[in-house]
Amino acid sequence: MRPLLILPFLLIAQFINAQTKTMTKGYLIYNLGVDTTFVGYYEVADHNFQFKIIGRANALTVTTLSGSLFPNGELKEATGYSYSPTLQGEGKKLTDYHAYTSNDSTYFSQVRDGKENLSKYSAKGMVANAIGTPFLFMLPVLAVYAPKNVGEVVNSYHLIFGQNRPFTIKRIAPDMIEMGSQVMGYFKIYTGDNGKLKSIDGIGSSWNVKGSFVDELDFDSYVKRFIEKESRQPLKALNKPDFVEAKINDVAIRIDYSRPSMRGRQIFGAVVPWNRVWRTGANEPTRITIDKSIFFDGKELKPGLYSIFTLPTKEGWTFIINTKTDMWGTDHNPEFDILKTPMQTAALDEPVELMTIEIRETKEGGVINVIWEKTKASVGFKTNK
After folding, report:
1. 329 with 296, same domain?
2. CB neighbours of 344 closer than 8 A, spacing ≥ 6?
3. So what's the pLDDT on residue 19?
């Protein structure tokens, strides 16, 4: 009977061998509104991958990275570095990256200016910010490991902030895959009838980018183009840290936030989706500090530091106060919500490019205005109940 058992194992081995010989490669162009922010080459074959990416986000850099994945798509090891490009070639080296797994844990090393930063995660994962810019280019690579049947899900981790955060890859339709985590948001990867990658939609995610795939492009010409464009017109910071403060009836109020720009994009209903809690800014959560109690619709907010979230819908907005302040802005946990109140909205005649928060004094207290695109959302408060 033993020879009969050999056939199933041979068939399984042939299937696995066929799967590992699948190669996916090409170029991915990411755009943030009207700005091209990342262009790069990616390749995955036999669970080995490589990238070369130029990024024009907060600084102009080129990053190369290569490594290998486990058969389920989780990161096994990776090595690479980033540098400032020049017209003559590689400029100053910026960061060395190294990642490896051991005993079901993942280790990362980043070396910058001779200083090493080490981190350890007690799990394997598919995505990790500690490998630098290329983590966004893991999306087309991981599409190879997506489930084949609609509705099926692959579960792993996004390794970030010293935590193992759930990361999923879900087959939404024969030509669409959704992948992401609560921290990075969720991206939709579209494919053709033959499974060939076509585009990525990250609108509504933490990055709010759109990606398009091409088989060939002149990478070096893009590098030169980016360098020349940067010398003529440096790309503005993606988000501007800022604050607003006021003293109303002896109550000191300060709001710290990061201000995103429109950049030619539709904001509400797209970059800021309807019916989803918004960090009311960018990057880390928007935070409010008060030294005496204030009151929203008769509800007391005691002195302290809080995070501000909003829930925009087509029918109206909700203002939310949360006690947790030490997380990434997209990582809202409703268990820590302590106050919710409706906001008033008004349409503006002219669009506002840079998101703005105001604190205005009124007869009984004040009003907080959130202004962006062609919308102003307002919530009033009193300094005495």
Report:
1. yes
2. 377, 378, 379
3. 44
